Amino acid sequence: MKIAITGGSGGIGQAFVRQLAARPGVKCVAATYHRSKPDFSHPAVSWAEVDITDESAVQAWTETLGEIDWLINAAGLLHRPENGPEKTIRHLEPDFFIDNMRVNALSSLLLAKHAGNHFRHGRPGIFAAISARVGSIEDNRLGGWISYRVSKAALNMGLKTLSIEWARTLPNVCVAVLHPGTTDTALSSPFQRNVPAGQLFSPEQSVGYMLEVLDGLKPADSGKFRAFDGELLPW
Ligand SMILES: NC(=O)c1ccc[n+]([C@@H]2O[C@H](COP(=O)([O-])OP(=O)(O)OC[C@H]3O[C@@H](n4cnc5c(N)ncnc54)[C@H](OP(=O)(O)O)[C@@H]3O)[C@@H](O)[C@H]2O)c1
Q1: What is the pLDDT of residues 14-43, one digit of tens each?
Q2: How big is the CA angle at 97 (ends 35 and 227), to the nearest 5 degrees?
Q3: How far is the CA of 121 from the centre of ligand 1 (A)?
Q4: Fewest Cβ atoms closer than 10 Å to its Cβ: which of 16, 125, 148, 234?
Q5: CA-closest residue to ligand 1 atom 46
Q6: Does residue 65 sit within a domain?
Q7: What's the rounded Cα separation, in Å, for the pair 135 and 156?
């Protein structure tokens, strides 16, 4: 198998790279990083620096891929030093909102646009993006985190729409939208205080669970929003 992973420098992304590279059936993992190259190396893994919100960079990288079986986008944005997720609409900042949309929603659509024709013909494939339960419109009980919620809801709609198109044009590819569970990474670290004991996963745990889900997916399962344990989540 050949697997492409974007956001491979993140907590979850790097755990995907490590676990998939260790699988005997995986011959090649083409992984991307953004600002700094991870120090993980493995004979199956090649690293490329890609800003996945930049269409020309995405196109140039996908042109190097050849045929792929899976593509997993594990990049994401929730906060940065100058911006946290909003507690109230009064904190909304247009630039931060747009950056959330670019990283959390646009990137997967650019990857689908440019990597779609790289899926191996006639073999089951997976195009997966890591979303978040807080992107569920129906499940939103607390409010807040507007830019992140809106951008993940946009990702979900984008991939649902993609799954309908690809059911006609790439029927061997399953489009999967996954919630990883709260996972101990830089993205969640400022917000872990109230996570109940036992519900904060290590990246290795979360990725182990998500790989079990991905391994069980068939093309007919395309266009669904699933949690790390396989639970179907409402859009
Ligand atoms: N951790 C959780 O509890 C949790 C819960 C629900 C959903 N998620 C989702 O899981 C995914 C992975 O998050 P994580 O927890 O692993 O966070 P993380 O450790 O902060 O990793 C996020 C990665 O995305 C990369 N990235 C950001 N902007 C990018 C860009 N323009 N181009 C390329 N890469 C870019 C970051 O690279 P740089 O740092 O170099 O910018 C970083 O490597 C995200 O989609 C997140 O929303 C996480």
Answers
A1: 999 999 999 999 999 999 999 999 999 999
A2: 75
A3: 30
A4: 234
A5: 76
A6: yes
A7: 8
